[in-house]
Design a protein that fits this description.
Number of strands: 8
Number of domains: 2
Order of helices and strands: HHHEEEHEHEHEHHHEHEHH
Distance between the termini: 72 Å
CATH class of the largest domain: Alpha Beta
Radius of gyration: 21 Å
Number of helices: 12
Oligomer: single chain
CATH superfamily of the largest domain: Alpha/Beta hydrolase fold, catalytic domain
Helix content: 40-55%
Length: 318
């Protein structure tokens, strides 16, 4: 009996140590991937052009002309964040401001297609921030949208101070969509009037659970639980509290939900979870048939633009 007890104790200790090490590894892999930031700019320039041919040439010409400009925001913790902004194509008849939030391991450059859509087609002022640990922004790790939402709220204040628009839309894709949905449940200023989320996850826990199964064919216990403890101790937030669904339950402002039905990275089922969670206020849903993750615009650029335009027109009346 004593021998059996020692064997069980040894196995339990090995499991605990192994799960702790695996949790640290998963946390580092998910929240501190490499390369990142400035080192990864060239890859993202190529990605921007794959989503909209000529996007970087369009941006470079406007940046060189001083139309797109860089700005920084210093947070309370001393972290320096970067963004680019530009006025609407026709400033005299600008429709408002669009704050565009990028996805996981991307930066502002990848979503130039949305900047061009909003600025040139919809005539909005645009601001595109780099989230922490991305692009030209500082930060010790990716925040998966949860703490990012607070930074985006600061960017919204800056955009409003610059253009003084009464109508602002926050439009995010992938992790940026989760950031947008998480932000939507906060106490926000009246000028933030609408949200567009494109293929965002229901919660960080749900997304990491899916990724753990897809990439490593592992169940969430005990590795994901251990990684969650590591994240909480290191960065001060929890995979389960970082929930789009919980925040959407408090959202009363209009939101357009977009998701490709061929999305395997953020499982398509997250769309219905998110849509159902928003029980107050106006909402629309568009399923982009055959679109993989973050590919709805590239697959249907004209329909995407039309649906966003029509949604914003409706949101103005509410």
């Amino acid at each position: 009996m004593r021998k059996l007890f020692r064997i069980l104790a040894t196995l339990t200790l090995a499991l605990c140590v192994g799960s702790c090490l695996a949790g640290k590894m998963v946390c580092n892999l998910a929240l501190k991937p490499t390369p990142h930031g400035v080192e990864d700019i060239e890859r993202t320039r190529h990605k921007a052009d794959s989503l909209l041919p000529g996007a970087t040439a369009w941006y470079d010409s406007l940046h060189a002309a001083g139309i797109f400009r860089d700005t920084t925001l210093i947070c309370e913790d001393g972290c320096s964040l970067h963004a680019v902004y530009a006025p609407a194509a026709d400033t005299a008849s600008a429709q408002g401001s669009a704050l565009i939030v990028h996805g996981y391991t991307d930066n502002h450059l990848v979503f130039l297609y949305l900047a061009k859509m909003y600025r040139d087609s919809l005539n909005y002022n645009v601001l595109l921030p780099d989230l922490r640990y991305h692009g030209y922004s500082e930060g010790e790790a990716i925040q998966m949208g949860w703490l990012d939402r607070l930074d985006v709220e600061k960017w919204a204040e800056l955009a409003h101070a610059r253009w003084n628009d009464a109508f602002m839309v926050v439009h995010g894709v992938s992790m940026g969509a989760a950031t947008t949905m998480m932000m939507s449940g906060d106490d926000l200023p009246a000028y933030i009037r609408a949200f567009v989320e494109d293929c965002g996850y229901a919660s960080v826990w749900d997304q990491f659970k899916a990724s753990l199964g897809q990439r490593f064919h592992l169940p969430p216990f005990p590795v994901l639980h251990s990684a969650n403890i590591v994240c909480r101790r290191r960065y001060g937030w929890d995979f389960k509290e970082a929930s789009s669904v919980k925040q959407l339950a408090k959202c009363e402002r209009p939101m357009l939900f977009i998701h490709g039905d061929a999305d395997k990275f953020v499982p398509f089922g997250h769309l219905q979870m998110n849509y159902d969670a928003k029980v107050n206020g106006y909402k629309e849903m568009w399923v982009a048939e055959g679109a993989v993750h973050a590919n709805a615009y590239a697959r249907y650029p004209e329909e995407y633009t039309r649906r966003v335009r029509d949604f914003l027109a409706k949101a103005r009346t509410l």
